[in-house]
Design brief:
The chain is of the alpha/beta class and 475 residues long. It folds into two domains: 2-216, YjeF N-terminal domain (Rossmann fold, 3-Layer(aba) Sandwich); 219-473, 3-Layer(aba) Sandwich (UDP-N-acetylmuramoyl-L-alanine:D-glutamate ligase). The chain is 41% helix and 15% strand. The chain has helices spanning 6-17, 24-45, 61-75, 91-99, 134-145, 191-195, 219-225, 235-238, 251-263, 278-284, 310-319, 348-355, 359-364, 366-377, 413-426, 431-448, 455-473, and strands at residues 2-4, 52-57, 79-84, 103-105, 118-122, 150-153, 175-179, 182-183, 197-201, 214-216, 240-244, 268-271, 297-300, 324-327, 342-345, 380-383, 389-391, 398-400. The strands form two sheets. Strands 8-1-10-18-17-16-15-14-13-11-12 form an eleven-stranded mixed β-sheet, sandwiched between helices. Strands 4-3-2-5-6-7-9 form a seven-stranded parallel β-sheet, with helices on one face. It binds ligand NAX and potassium ion. Potassium ion is lined by residues 62, 121-125, 152-155, 157. Keywords: ATP-binding, Isomerase, Kinase, Lyase, Metal-binding, Multifunctional enzyme, NAD, NADP, Nucleotide-binding, Potassium, Transferase.
Amino acid sequence: MQAFTVEQVRRLEAVAMRVVPEGALMQRAAAGLAAVVATELVRRTGRVYGARVLVLVGPGNNGGDALWAAARLARRGARVSAVSVLGRPHAEGLAALLAAGGRLLDADALGDLARYDLALDGVLGIGGRPGLPEDVAGLVARLDAAHVPVVAVDLPSGVAADTGAVPAEAVAAAVTVTFGVVKVCHLLEPARSRTGRLVLVDIGLDTTTETPEIDAWDADRVADAWPWPGASSDKYGKGVVGVDAGSETYPGAGIMATYGAVHGGAGMVRFLGPQSAHPMITTNLPDVVFAAGRVQAHLLGSGWGERPDGTQVVADAVGSGVPGVLDADGLGHRPDTLPGSWLLTPHAGELAKLLGVERTQVEDDPLAAVRAGVDKTGATVLLKGATQLVARPGTTTVELAVPGPAWTGQAGSGDTLAGLCAAVLAAGRPAHEAAVLAASLQAVAAAAHPGPLPPHVLAERCADQLGAWWRERQP
Ligand SMILES: NC(=O)C1=CN([C@@H]2O[C@H](COP(=O)(O)OP(=O)(O)OC[C@H]3O[C@@H](n4cnc5c(N)ncnc54)[C@H](O)[C@@H]3O)[C@@H](O)[C@H]2O)[C@@H](O)CC1
Ligand SMILES: [K+]
């Protein structure tokens, strides 16, 4: 699934409008919207005829879409009331609703909101600034308190369309019906959670002229793209990972990174971290070797803590020409520029430090931050967290890994994720693909095995998930 910015949507709509009659795009949008709302009414109340619908109408075309859709519902017998909450409502749309038997009510004449079966949020669309005026926010809160489900038109009013930020009040929709293309706010938290179920209505936009802002992966695509071993794959074909992670202070990080590499399918893992981790690794992962030798991907940095020789270790690994993953404390030892075949795996705080900005700046606009990480380092960057984004040199498109439950938000998850990334990298995949496949695998495994699993146990469930995908793919 691809997502685009408001500026891009405006360009795409301008092109489409040159070849269709005036108002045609809005009619396509309204027809699609009305169909989704009708289905939703039937699902929730068993009928469209007689169902009560409240339409919140803003001053722009978003309100126009809502009014034209409401007119269609009114013609099917729905009892539609509209309330104009900001500026003047779309004139033709309002006339169409009134002609179809709908009513325009005053905000203080709405009565008990619980009698409405559904509300349509046509307050603000892609022309909206984040936040809602106080009286609109009050009405939205009353609908919420009355448990009236909201269908958002194009996007939940109040969210920032291009970043997914929700800096002030915003609608929380059960369903969002968007037009032409998916927008960034539908995919990025915290706006994603306010989008509810997303339905895309085709209004005939040709997206091929624009570079997508986001390329979002789903589980099927991950399974299709996984570097499955072939009939003749040996351990070198599957890839050897060299793990130099952990320290006397943090031996566990090295162990968990190793769990990730083993369970992500590496052909062989060489553990090059501290001696103190050896007994634990030997007991639990007897396939891991401790001798230095040929590797096809490095993994450096997880749990290093203070590492006096860190800069030299990273420089040597980068100089070897083999790709690698640079995680956690290793990020502070990176050279000025890295090749795009190297993957950095910071969380928001680490990326903020790398960029010399506040953590909130990364959290408020993660797309911009992850791209800035690439510009600054030359490497591919996986921004870890609730939403996992991957940016790389040579394209502005940011890839979005399959989202997972928040169970993975615990110490050690990042170490195992770095190991999973290194396993895919060692199999010969480019850094951006390694990042998105590994992050998605961990999320899918966490969703399939919900509950607070220790990260190394979740790594084992990742292997189970690969097994399940593998079985599904056998003829
Ligand atoms: N452009 C097109 O071709 C199409 C547009 N469509 C609809 O049109 C929408 C965009 O319409 P508009 O460009 O008219 O913009 P909006 O309907 O999003 O509203 C913009 C208006 O709201 C005001 N406003 C913005 N943020 C505010 C805030 N926080 N508080 C108070 N007032 C605020 C602005 O001053 C402006 O008057 C899309 O989201 C979509 O629903 C669809 O009909 C499909 C076709
Ligand atoms: K809206």
